[in-house]
Design a protein that fits this description.
It is built from 12 helices and 12 strands. The protein folds into 2 domains: 195 residues, Jelly Rolls, CATH 2.60.120; 100 residues, Arc Repressor Mutant, subunit A (Orthogonal Bundle). A 7-stranded antiparallel sheet has the order 1-3-4-11-6-9-12, with helices on both faces. The protein is globular and about 65 Å long. By secondary structure, the protein is of the alpha+beta class.
Length: 338
């Protein structure tokens, strides 16, 4: 993450090194989450390395404190998964109630700080290539590709994995080499989304194997008929969705039974499932507009005018998708449509 594939320095807003604890922790709060750091000895000053790049919704950092440290009290409300990939030195991690794991060069460790507690010790030579992945992003991609969201048997498992020459290490190399001198992914935003999904799906498979969770069969096959039927209704009618009571009636159960089924077999509520389908539909409409469409008309068609969390989610989707490509407000409609 120092230079791109052509050897040009990768630009970054803000400092890439620091000897000030407040500055270092401000960086860490932004790219990881709030947590407590304690140096290995009193009066130690950091010699931090602080490089970062964005890969879709995943934050990638090349980071070191430059001194021995102990980290704990990671904030679960931040909602983030950490993947710590050791480049140099060693980290010692809390793995379970009975033991710890040490990662050295080429090794990786994953922990969902929104679902379980965690601490780590780093030696004075530690250097990592870290990934910060919002839990909601991982759940969204799992739902899209697997048809269900794994439960806490996966998310509460802290796992050491990888090793030099592993598939995961090869993927990280590919991702790093995709970052241009501008600090952006080459071919963004489509390439960034491709890499985001590659990272999440490969990590899900590795994580599930280590946690003993079967993703192949999973909750998708086990889900009862009314859950699968409700999914089909919401996917088919996402643009103008029926109410939850109407969906429950059409599949022959109560709203409570429908909600319990989704929570048990999909790890989310029916409303969250519907919201994800609506966001996907809005994204597709913005990226593939019809002649005469505008950002405003598409947003209105997909219910952007509504209030509440769903409406705010659609608003965020419009802002993210409309900025780079391909929908732009014009008098005649969507630029390039037609």
């Amino acid at each position: 993450m120092l230079t791109d594939a052509e050897g040009r320095p990768i630009r970054q807003d803000g400092p890439t090194s620091s000897r000030d604890w407040d500055e270092v922790q401000d960086f860490c709060r932004r790219v990881y989450m709030p947590y407590r750091v304690r140096p290995g000895a009193r009066h130690l000053e950091p010699a931090a390395v602080m490089h970062m790049a964005q890969v879709g919704r995943i934050t990638m950092t090349r980071f070191s404190y430059g001194v021995p440290i102990h980290l704990d009290r990671f904030d679960p409300d931040a909602g983030n998964i950490l993947v710590l990939n050791t480049i140099r030195g060693a980290l010692r991690h809390k793995q379970d109630a009975r033991g710890q794991a040490t990662t050295r060069a080429g090794d990786s460790f994953v922990v969902d700080c929104s679902r379980t507690d965690y601490w780590l010790d780093g030696d004075g030579d530690h250097l990592q290539l870290n990934l910060t992945i919002p839990h909601d992003v991982m759940a969204e991609i799992a739902l899209r590709w697997l048809g269900f969201v794994p439960d806490d048997r996966l998310w509460t498992q802290r796992l050491a994995f990888g090793g030099s020459g592993s598939r995961w290490q090869a993927l990280l190399t590919y991702v790093v080499q995709s970052v241009e001198a501008s600090g952006r992914v080459r071919g963004a935003p489509l390439m960034a989304r491709h890499l985001e999904e590659l990272i999440c799906m490969d990590l899900l498979q590795i994580w599930a194997e280590g946690a003993g969770v079967n993703l192949r069969d999973g909750a998708r096959a086990a889900a009862p008929r009314h859950v699968r039927a409700a999914e089909e209704i919401m996917a088919r009618e996402a643009r103008d969705p029926p109410s939850m009571s109407d969906i429950a009636s059409r599949v022959g159960v109560s709203v409570r039974t429908l909600s319990e089924g989704f929570r048990r077999f999909r790890g989310m509520t029916p409303r969250e499932f519907l919201r994800a389908r609506r966001l996907e539909g809005l994204r597709a409409a913005l990226q593939n507009p019809l002649p005469g469409d505008t950002v405003t008309s598409i947003a209105h068609d997909w219910g952007l005018c509504q209030s509440g969390r769903a409406g705010r989610g659609l608003s965020r989707m419009v802002r993210r998708t409309a900025r780079p490509h391909p929908c732009r407000r014009t008098e005649a409609g969507v630029k390039g449509a037609g």
